[in-house]
Amino acid sequence: PPDVEQLGRSSWTLLHSITAQYPESPSPQLQSETKTFMHTFSKLYPCWHCATDFQTWMKKDGNAPRVSSREEFGRWMCEAHNAVNVKIGKKEFDCTKWEERWRTGWKD
Ligand code: FAD
Question: Which percentage of the chain shows pLDDT scores above 90?
């Protein structure tokens, strides 16, 4: 199985990059497809205990994917990532800075 840390870094890069290029005004169809994508992603993520906990988190009140705009989706992904950060004892990321990190760009 893949290395959980390496897989995580690559996966968050993909997920945040998707939100960074998401439309400001997505069509209803794309919004629906995006929710399905996140739902399916949470089932296929190839770290099974990670996947199970992520599915449980998404089912909690207020944690369903918010996909009505780039800003909403980017914030939601940041919150999802922070939930994992907290769970594994990493520092929470300041979600006012998600766009600077993933769209307009800085290096880390
Ligand atoms: P990462 O957490 O991979 O982050 C990469 C970069 O993203 C950081 O350097 C930072 O610049 C930026 N960043 C950090 N937080 C945020 C944020 N909230 N919003 C936007 N940008 C941010 N690992 C486990 O050990 N157990 C688990 O249960 C687990 N579940 C996971 C579930 C999912 C869905 C995913 C995608 C990953 C999961 N991981 C899990 C992996 C874990 O989240 C990390 O990817 C891994 O530990 C490597 O951490 P890292 O310190 O390199 O940075």
Answer: 93
